[in-house]
Amino acid sequence: MEKPTVALVYQAVQALYHDPDPAGKERASVWLGELQRSMYAWEMADQLLQLKQDVESCYFAAQTMKMKIQTSFFELPPETHIALRDSLLSHIQSLKDLSPIIVTQLALAIADLALQMASWKGCVHTLIEKYSNDVSSMTFLIEILTVLPEEVHSRSLRIGANRRTEIIEDLAYYSSTVVTLLMTCVEKSGSNEKMLIKVFRCLGSWFNLGVLDSNFMANNQLLMVLFQVLQRDETSTNLHEAASDCVCSALYAIENVDTHMPLALQLFQGVLTLETAYHMAVAREDLDKVLNYCRIFTELCETFLETTVKSPGQGMGDLRTLELLLICAGHPQYEVVEISFNFWYRLGENLYKTNDPALHGIFRPYIQRLLHGLARHCQLDPDHEGIPEDTDDFGEFRMRVSDLVKDVIFLVGSMECFSQLYSTLKEGNPPWEVTEAVLFIMAAIAKSVDPENNPTLTEVLEQVVLLPETVHIAVRYTSIELVGEMSEVVDRNPRFLDPVLNYLMKGLREKTLASVAAKAIHNICSVCRDHMAQHFQGLLDIARALDSFALTTEAAVGLLKGTALVLARLPLEKIAECLSDLCAVQVMALKKLLSQDPSNGKAADPTVWLDRLAVIFRHTNPIVENGQTHPCQKVIQEIWPVLSQTLNTHQADNRIVERCCRCLRFAVRCVGKGSASLLQPLVTQMVSVYQVYPHSCFLYLGSILVDEYGMEEGCRQGLLDMLQALCMPTFQLLEQPNGLRNHPDTVDDLFRLATRRLSSLCYRGHHTGPPGRQLQCHEVRQRPHPHGRQQRRESAPTKSNLFQTVNVGLSLLQTAQNH
């Protein structure tokens, strides 16, 4: 681009903000973006800041200057750095009253310059010395001192580890000077709220960097001011949040308590004084302040967690910290208690590792009170209609409660808690919302209760399946979830199997309960496979009528998974017929789709049926003795033509081809070497389609075939030919510009295919091949497995390395084949 005039740049900025034509705005945006990437941006931004024509042009110029310093500082020769610094300081002083966002952008530019300009020694001291005596400059001085520590670890800056260390040491040296300046600002400004907010933000920034001296801070008046602000009832919301953020930063900074003892003690004592202020905020229904206090209390508990576990009730292991969190748990808004969840997770983890019954006994009452509060928070509104929602904020909260309960229940005792919860339902007559919440918590811990000879569990199960259909739909929904979680109890008490299945079938027939009932049936099938064998015909009837129920895709697949698991436990002579019946619905649906004329030139989507077949093949794993014919072999051979035709019809659609390959993968895995008759037609079709549409899933499916047949004498040459046939289109694809980066899955699957083939030949060579070849193969086999796909996308291998490796692999394969 040619050097523009400042008038032209200003005109483009005006168009960006004020042109009524969207196309005009877009053209201005593109042109200004090009300007920002050019060398002329430095001069244009400087001139716009000097002109001070309006907020828009000054903001654009300040933002441009910040961006150039962050990303293109190398463009400037070192002799211009001082002039740039002086210019920026002049601009921020002259524009300090125009707009706070402009001041922030310029402060960031100055901070980023200071961090990269090694010749600017003691920048903090220089700035404080120059501006601290000018009251009108104090606003932007504190802004610079706030963003400076925040930018030290910015990924936008191109500075090395040594430079960062030098900067941190320099900031640590002047940190006490900064704190003294902040205290002076507080004394001079009195109760000026805006200045206090700036001071607290700045102090928090220095705490976050971890450079403040603990002894100096422990005796500093700023701490006292912080807690005074938090204790005052009349403190505004914005100031309260800034003070809370600062205290949380301080607590986080002293997590290694032993090395920060004086400051830790001051913060510990200061936070404990905030309980009264919390109660005042609750009384005034000021939720923002309540949340702030809970954040502070939680950060306090997190910081002193190890101390609390090592010496509970002593010194800074004072259990009043837990009392503060339990007080917050009593707040009616669930968002408050949710803040503390991470602490309770960590506490449970620490206590589980210590495995000290006496220590567990100390914390047990606190966990019991927590669980009681969580059960209350999980209650739906009394006027709630329908089932509990899983996807809204409250539904996600309940899921987090369920996870937390599972993590800490060992401290209370699963059986004791389960019995107490059940007694609240048995002995009283609570409202439906209380009943539903209790059942929800019971479902969370049901699997952790020992099902062996447990009369309470069997009584609960017996009572739940007798719930009338007139109870609230949400209670029925959660009770079905509970039944699904109690599948171990059903397995040990098979007399309950019939009433449980009848209860779940009632739910399956109702639109709102169908999916949760299907999930429960899936759980029962997974755990009670042997007992469910007698009910296989009923499961088959459900599978045949699957689409008549109002099921989610996940629930429908889960039901088929459960049915397949039970199918695998049938006598071998019955499996083939039953598998054929189970697959028939899916196969008929695929045939129907294939017989239809494509609408608008596009065939109907078969993925639903392919996924269902895949889950059936995946989980039908009967025990077959050596020499026996696999019972699934004949069924899969019969289904193959339909899968082959589906693959041909949709060969251009990567998503559908992936589903076809996934289905074939599990079919091959299901019968193992029993699928040998499919090998030649499958490989032929794979290679044929791959020449035109190089979907990486074919490479993955090829690696499955190598895994299954690589040791078979009659399959070796065919598999090597398949590998060579697949490699040529793959190399062509990866040789394209950015081919390796654009096709990470292809790289991954190609390596998997080649290494599996090589491994199978090396294994054979280990027993029969010459020693020299064994060594070569062993060396190749010991190479580290490729990194995950996402990592490879970020740092793809070079073409030369990739092709060299694969070609070496092919040579080794050919050599091993000859031996």
UniProtKB/TrEMBL annotation:
Region (Disordered): 766-801
Gene Ontology BP term (one): protein import into nucleus
Residue stretches making up the Exportin-1/Importin-beta-like domain: 100-246
Molecular function in Gene Ontology: small GTPase binding
InterPro entries (alphabetical): ARM-like, ARM-type_fold, Exportin-1/Importin-b-like, Importin-beta_N, Importin_beta-like_NTR, TPR_TNPO3_IPO13_2nd, TPR_TNPO3_IPO13_3rd, TPR_TNPO3_IPO13_4th
GO cellular component: cytoplasm; nuclear envelope
Pfam families: IBN_N, TPR_TNPO3_IPO13_2nd, TPR_TNPO3_IPO13_3rd, TPR_TNPO3_IPO13_4th, Xpo1
Purpose: Importin, which transports target proteins into the nucleus. Specifically mediates the nuclear import of splicing factor serine/arginine (SR) proteins, such as RBM4, SFRS1 and SFRS2, by recognizing phosphorylated SR domains. Also mediates the nuclear import of serine/arginine (SR) protein CPSF6, independently of CPSF6 phosphorylation. The nuclear import process is regulated by the small GTPase Ran that partitions between cytoplasm and nucleus in the predominantly GDP- and GTP-bound form, respectively.
Protein name: Transportin-3
